[in-house]
Amino acid sequence: MTSKTPIYEGKAKKLFEGPEPGTLIAHYKDDATAFNNKKRGQIQGKGIINNKISEYLMTRLGEMGVPTHFIRGINMRQQLVRAVDIVPLEIIVRNYAAGSFAERFGAFEGEPLGSPLFEYCLKDDRLGDPFIAEDHIFAFGIADPEEMDEIRHYALRINDFLSGLFYGIGIRLIDLKLEFGRYYEGEYEQIVLADEISPDTCRLWDIATNDKLDKDRFRRDLGGEEDAYREVARRLGVLPSASVVESDVFAGKSPRAGAAKAAKPARKAPAKKTSPIKPKKK
Ligand SMILES: Nc1ncnc2c1ncn2[C@@H]1O[C@H](COP(=O)(O)OP(=O)(O)O)[C@@H](O)[C@H]1O
Ligand SMILES: [Mg+2]
C-alpha cells in the first residue's frame, strides 16, 4: 500500500487516499475521546483491536446482505474502504437503557427497552452532536425519507444480527452507534454502512458478570480498558497473536489472562420501582 496522502484526521481514525479511485485507507488510532472531545486519552492497542473487530463484524454483516464500506484488511491498523459521502448522522440503536439515555429518562442502566429504540444525533463536533428528529433531518435536507427508511431498515438488521452474534460469545449488546454513507456507482446511489463497529461505538456487557467491555471503562475511569477491548477481540476470535502485537502497542504488557476479571464489575441495576419504561403488554 503505497499511497499515503492524508485526507482527514478524526478523533479515532485517520483517512488516507486509497490505491484506487473511490477508495480510502482507514487508519485506526489508539486515541480515545469522550463527552464530545472534552475527555481525551489513549487506550494502548485500541487501534489494532478496533481495526480487527470492525473488519470482522463488517465482513459478517456483508455476508448476510448488509452493504458496507469495507473492502479488505491491509495491516494491523489499516483497512481499505469505499469512500462514501457520509450522511452526517449518528444512528443510535438502544436495546437496554444506559449512559446518557438512562440519565435523561431516569431509567436504570441495563433495563431492557422491549424493542430496539432509535435516536439520531447530528454529526457536528462544533455543536456537540445534538439530538435531531426526522422532521429536522428532512427539513435541513440531511437525508430524504427514502434514505432514512433504508438506514432504519439496515440499522435494525445490524442490531438484530449483532445482538445474536454477541450473545453467542456471552456479551449483551446494550446499544450501538452507526454511521451510513452514500456510495455512488454511476447514476446509482446506495446506502452503505460506514465508519466502524467496535467497543468504541457499542456498549457491550459481559452477560455473566455485567462487566463493561467497552468505552464506558474509559469514560467513567473504571480502568482495565485495554483488557476489556482485548477480551471482546478474543471472544470474536480476532485477537492478534501476542508475537505480532508485542512488537507494537502491547509491548511490556502482561499476557492477556483473565481480561474480563481485571475489569471491575458494573453497577447492578437496582429494583425497577420508579422507572419510566413500562414493560410492553404481550
Ligand atoms: N467509508 C468512509 N468514507 C468517508 N468517510 C468515512 C468513511 N468511514 C468513516 N468515515 C469518516 O471518517 C472520519 C474519521 O473517523 P473518526 O476518527 O471515527 O471520526 P470522528 O472524530 O467523527 O469520530 C469520520 O468523519 C467518519 O464519518
Ligand atoms: Mg468516530
SSE class: alpha+beta
What's the overall geometry?
globular
β-strand number: 13
Largest beta-sheet details: 6 strands, antiparallel
* Secondary-structure element pattern, one letter each: EEEEEHEEEEHEHHEEEHHHH
> What kind of oligomer do you see?
single chain
Helix proportion: 25-40%
- CATH architectural designation of the largest domain: 2-Layer Sandwich
Mean pLDDT: 90
User: Looking at CATH, which topology of the largest domain would you report?
Assistant: D-amino Acid Aminotransferase, Chain A, domain 1
Distance between the termini: 55 Å
Uncertain residue segments: 249-273
Rg on CA atoms, Å: 19 Å
Bound molecules: adenosine-5'-diphosphate, magnesium ion
Number of spatially distinct domains = 2
Q: For the record, what is the CATH homologous superfamily label of the largest domain?
A: ATP-grasp fold, B domain
Number of discrete helical segments: 8
